[in-house]
Amino acid sequence: MEKSNKLAAKRFKQIRETNGATQKEFAEVLGIKNNIADIERGRTKITGYTLVRLMQECQVNPLWLYGFSALKEMNALQVDVSPKVITLNSSTNENMVLVDAKAAAGYPSNIQDRHWFNELPAFDFPLPEYRNATFRGFQVQGDSMYPHLKPNEWVIAKAVDNFQYLSNERICVIVLKDSVLVKQLHKQDTSSCVTLVSLNDSYPTIEIKLSDIQEIWEVSSKLSFDIHSIGETATIHELQLAMQRLSSEVSALKSS
């Protein structure tokens, strides 16, 4: 707890400096008589009233203040990234909707249209790994996640209800207001933005606001139908080993 209090004091000062306020001005904003310098030095603990005022005036997430969350701002916690529509089978059980590349183009604009989702193919996956949660299948477009995910492969992803509890650096399907992306999602400690990273180094990273996200689906598995890719991978690996041996032999000749 002492470590959390020290961190809170440090971040309290960071909040004041970010707002460009002097210690006197910050005390007036928060409506407190406490010595701001003593709070920032860790000599005086942040009271419950001060914490409430930080939340009201600066939108500070109290969990971030004490080091229990990566999200600094309260409004980041209020973003609804859960599914807007779920579909049921004839037995009134949830089924798994499949969103292919063509359907993905219309997904953002139809995100709350139940009739649109009912037109998409859906099925039940009778495996224990796909129970007690909402899952959806998405087709991978392009090679931005190569070699981990190849073009036209399918990922099976679980609905994320609360962004706060999503583990960092997870591969996710992110539904924005105008597109559907499959990326590795990196949380940022000091803002309500996230960074979307492609596993293919030739693609740039993307920074977006949490408020621009409509849904997040955490990828749990993939479906691949290219059974011959194993042999191709093995061949490439053999070529890499051969090149390494050749390079070693050339280096040995140069040194002799």
What is the element layout, followed by pairings?
Elements: H1 2-18, H2 23-30, H3 36-40, H4 48-58, H5 62-65, H6 74-77, E1 96-99, H7 101-106, H8 114-118, E2 122-123, E3 135-139, E4 154-159, E5 170-176, E6 180-187, E7 193-197, E8 206-209, E9 213-223, H9 229-255
Parallel strand pairs: 1-3
Antiparallel strand pairs: 1-2, 3-4, 4-9, 5-6, 5-9, 6-7, 7-8
Give an account of the 3D structure.
The protein has 256 residues and is of the alpha+beta class. The protein has 9 helices and 9 strands. The longest helix has 27 residues, at 229-255. Strands 2-1-3-4-9-5-6-7-8 form a 9-stranded mixed β-sheet. The radius of gyration is 25 Å and the shape is extended. It has helices at 2-18, 23-30, 36-40, 48-58, 62-65, 74-77, 101-106, 114-118, 229-255, and strands spanning 96-99, 122-123, 135-139, 154-159, 170-176, 180-187, 193-197, 206-209, 213-223. 34% of the residues lie in helices and 20% in strands. The chain folds into 2 domains: 2-69, 434 Repressor (Amino-terminal Domain); 96-223, Umud Fragment, subunit A (Ribbon), CATH 2.10.109.10.
Question: How do you describe this structure in short?
Answer:
This protein folds into 2 domains: 2-69, lambda repressor-like DNA-binding domains (434 Repressor (Amino-terminal Domain), Orthogonal Bundle); 96-223, Umud Fragment, subunit A (Ribbon).
